[in-house]
Task: structure prediction
Amino acid sequence: MLRKRVIPCLDVRNGKLTKGIRFAGNEDIGDPVESARRYYEEGADEIVFYDITASAEARGIFLDVVERVAAQIFIPFSVGGGIASVEDMRAVLLAGAEKVSVNSAAVKNPQLISEGAAAFGSQAVVVGMDVLAVPVSPAIPSGYEIVIYGGRKRMGLDAVAWARRCQELGAGELCVNSIDADGTRDGYELRLTRAIADAVSIPVIASGGAGEPRHMLEAVTTGGASAALIASIVHYGQYSIRQCKAYLAAHGAPVRLTW
Result:
């Protein structure tokens, strides 16, 4: 049985760890390098790093921060933000990441997914999906719409259809973030996660809304996710990675325990 993963997410702005609610009101809360090291030592299965303003600011990712994080951890490391070409992907991988996460640029140029998979393998290409709940319509039959540029631009693109397309193009994994749930700590948007997980055969990471370990359990059971992305509950010290994984194990979810 494949183990479920617990993945802390480092949203980074101007080199600082930051956190907001529903993609707004971000405040700087610490050093991403120190946080990555701590989460690694606590037993995180993977670390995700997003330079959250790179795409909107039309610039490349801060590779020096990526390099400093990569030097501190020895688990898979996924990096996203401002990655718009195979050359950008290569630079991030050479800086120490095992995976690249593409989002806005992939929506604008879907061939970026297939080009990255051809160059580095599907296992190295993650597609991040920022999703907003909207009224069901002929254009958005699932009721979930893709939004790019850090929640700034709605695309009129159905999230479930886009997930299927990403898999066809060679993506190895999808990270599905609910804008509505992001930062609220009220739980993941399980209907969204399940809809995506049922539509594809590649791993799906649930993102947005974790407030307690129970929410993570729901994501990997009811939501059908392969992994749970977490941020606020560990950034603010509400729970440790170890506490989260111990809860999952105690409730029957297969996880990697390091103690």
Remarks:
- The two ends are 20 Å apart (CA to CA).
- The chain has one domain: 5-251.
- The domain at 5-251 is CATH 3.20.20.70 (TIM Barrel).
- The chain has a mean pLDDT of 92.
